[in-house]
Specification:
By secondary structure, this protein is an all-alpha fold. It has one domain. Helix 1 packs across helix 2.
C-alpha cells in the first residue's frame, strides 16, 4: 500500500465527507451521481485556485 502523507489524507478525508454530505443533502443515491457532483465542485475549486496563482 502506498504511503499517504498527512496532507493528502486530509484532502481525501475532506473529499469523502463532501461526497457524504452531498448525497444526504441532495438525495443522490447512486455512486456515479455522487461522484459526478463531487467532480463538478472540485473543478470549480481547481479553476479558482488557478486564478489565484
Amino acid at each position: 500500500m502506498p504511503y499517504i502523507r498527512d496532507r493528502d489524507f486530509a484532502r481525501i478525508n475532506e473529499l469523502v465527507l463532501t461526497i457524504k454530505q452531498l448525497s444526504e443533502k441532495e438525495g443522490y443515491v447512486s455512486i456515479p451521481d455522487i461522484a459526478a457532483r463531487a467532480l463538478k465542485i472540485m473543478d470549480r475549486y481547481i479553476v479558482e485556485a488557478e486564478e489565484e496563482e
